[in-house]
């Protein structure tokens, strides 16, 4: 059997489990007590700036800081809208240590859709309680002592980053800041996205690999200088904490540096700790000091991957394998054990890591990283000399070659696989299968013996995509419509409208942000991927209003869509045609619905063909759909108004439905009494933005619905609305008993996402 750990390691494992239980209880207790006010009235605050978080993007300045006045003191995220291009350049050129800010503290926005990124939780786990939206911002000349600063070493780190900007070319400077000082703010979005798709994004962050390389280089240098082993230990005991501070207290650098530091301390004090002992103590210290860190994806991946490496290296069967088999097994094991973490947080993963690690890791380890370290260390002597400039240029070409190679590979093949979010049961099964695979290798000494286990893992990775549970989800897109339908067993997926964020003023070039909030990237695509949807079979645009199609072109550019469905009126609408022109010709199939044509989009969904030809009202051009999902009939009405409703009643006098998507966001011009009486729904769903400028839904419409035995759900109060069902009778009975309809939140109010607010 696999030799797990010795007796001392078993005791340490018990300590880790106990520490996790204790900090989890403590953390939940703290969460229960944590209930800050939704907002604090506008006031003036003295804000100490965390300079290394200072980010200027388009017309937005954002940074972390400590906001203080005589009433409150809070760790905050400051969001400031820049008023001019001149102010933008000034804020880029000089980062102040303190600012006097007049503004209002608000709680960060929460996720309003299932499996959507939750900004509030993200900031709270970084001990940031509020977002400070500014009205006025003023530099202030204040220089408190080192001990009085909230961010004591941050200014020193910022000085080093500024030094990189002054001395090196932009390309080499960006990579020195990323790989030596863990500052990835200036790495291009294209580069980071490409490395993410290839599964090697970890190479752009400081990790145990970089720390080991740094230690190895310093060890060889000191050996060449005939420094004794004891003296080298003392040097590393001093250098490692300093490096951790200068690298910005990142979790990966903490894990690697602290683990090495404990090992050197053990050797110095003759404690005889093993590598697993050092790993375990590093883990315990992290979770005791900051319990919420266990939710960090960086923490989970760093500690899990390092444990797998240490564990395998301690096994006799692993040492007996040939060098190539060891490399293959390590790559496969690291990939396999990372899948549950990546799937839970990102809903997708890249299988490219299985072979690209062997290509890029040596390149970074033995060429790029040493070159960057040599360039940085020698820069005080060689900077701006002819030799220094040549060295800088050579390092730049090393970076350019790596970036171009990654782009070529990314364009040549698709390596990303959508998995959906793994459930707790799936995570447990996955880990069990991975352990069985290691046991099989130990038993047979042959990697090919893991094929049956690999087949089980392949089945498990497709569970969400081909799940027996179907879903109909009204996605909260603010003031707009977006309804997602995913049928059981992967039979098909349909999105009815996309929503759209209205832009009231055209932005100048300097105001355009590279990392702005979009419905497609931030809401629609994550929600679909979380369900395991890999291709959208049909995208239906009911009518050409921006709040129904605004995210269409972005969605189609970023996610595979087979068929775009619309009617002639929508196709010929001038504003819609402009959006349609942004999509590459031939990129997808376009299907035009005729008003008198009976059309089945799927076996479960068909178009209501009431032969409507009057084009005087754009809302009444909406495609109306009737579907059967689970035990319920669904009527999706777009934005039709009373006259179109009467026409539908005329052509389909027997029409009724269990679920009504209330037309036009609850406007007074829609859902008239006779129509509501004929449809006779048990459930009514309203997609509407909170505090929208149109006043939707109208009070009289809500009162009208309340006069019927109807369960009402609305996105401005409930967030995303989800209905689950199954073709399997026993499973469907369970879902109905459990409650087929679920909402994201029962709160009467919701904060908008910070990215959307500004």
TrEMBL record:
- What membrane topology does the annotation report for this chain? Multi-pass membrane protein
Q: Which UniProt keywords apply?
A: Cell membrane, Membrane, Transmembrane, Transmembrane helix
Enumerate the subcellular locations listed in this protein's record, separating them with semicolons: Cell membrane
Question: Which residues span the membrane?
Answer: 200-222, 234-257, 279-312, 324-347, 412-441, 447-466
- Return the NCBIfam families for the record: ComEC_N-term, ComEC_Rec2
Annotated source species: Alkalibacterium indicireducens
- Protein name, as recorded: DNA internalization-related competence protein ComEC/Rec2
SUPFAM superfamilies tied to this protein? Metallo-hydrolase/oxidoreductase
Spell out the InterPro entries in the cross-references.
Answer: ComA-like_MBL, ComEC_N, Competence_ComEC/Rec2, Competence_DNA_uptake, DUF4131, Metallo-B-lactamas, RibonucZ/Hydroxyglut_hydro
Occurrences of domain Metallo-beta-lactamase (ranges): 479-690
